[in-house]
Amino acid sequence: MIRMARQCDAQAISEIFCPIVTSTAISFATAAPTTSDFQKKIAEITTTLPWFVFELDSIVKGFAYASPHRSLGAYRWCVEVSIYVSADSRRSGVAKALYERLIETLRSLGYYNAYAGITLPNEASIVFHEFFGFQKFCVFKSIGNKHGKWHDVAWYKLELQDEYTSNPSDPISIRELPVERPSVMARDA
If we measure between CA atoms, which residue out of 152, 116, 119 comes closest to residue 134? Predict the structure, then answer.
């Protein structure tokens, strides 16, 4: 089942994310966020943007969310997207189901561009994003140092709307969408 994240999901989200912080350079965070940190982040993001969790047998198996790309007004049609899945749920369809829902929602909200930063090397993430139509547009060389090594980050872009209009309407808040659809079960999860 895919649903909007709630603050009570913060512990499960932390358990998925913290090993990625401590053991990999996939995230450039250098300290694992606490449950309280995630509660605050969920509350902040879900006032305007989607944060979805994939729940199976009452256990959160993954999460995906969008955050503002930049704070200046002309960027308001752009978001950055993030997705993380528990180690036991990778390659099971959880990530695919979460991204389908996230991208569909971002389109409905009126966003034009979604960006994903991928620490290199990470062939699995590259293939995953390209499957959804993301296209690489640049690589920031040696932009972050983690675990005693400099890392490159490739940036990928997905155009969310069919056409760019000169005077687009502002994106709407996730809270302005009609009541959330009933939870969606992922067939290939």
Answer: 116
Residue 149 maps to a domain? yes
Q: What is the pLDDT of residue 189?
A: 37
| Cis ω for the linkage preceding 121 (within 30 of 0) | yes
Task: Report the number of distinct structural domains present in the chain.
Answer: 1
Q: What is the structure's pLDDT at 177?
A: 82
Strands 113-119 and 78-85: parallel
17 vs 65: CA distance, rounded Å: 13
Helices 94-109, 123-131: crossing angle, 10 deg rounding: 50
Which residues constitute the domain of residue 123?
2-162
Query: Residue 183: its pLDDT value, please?
Result: 43
The residues, any chain, with a CB within 8 Å of residue 126's CB and separated by 6 or more, are 118, 136, 154, 156
**Would the CA dihedral through 124, 107, 10, 82 be positive or negative?**
positive
For residue 96, count other CB atoms closer than 10 A to its CB.
Answer: 18
pTM of the model: 0.90
Low-confidence ranges of the chain (pLDDT < 70): 179-189
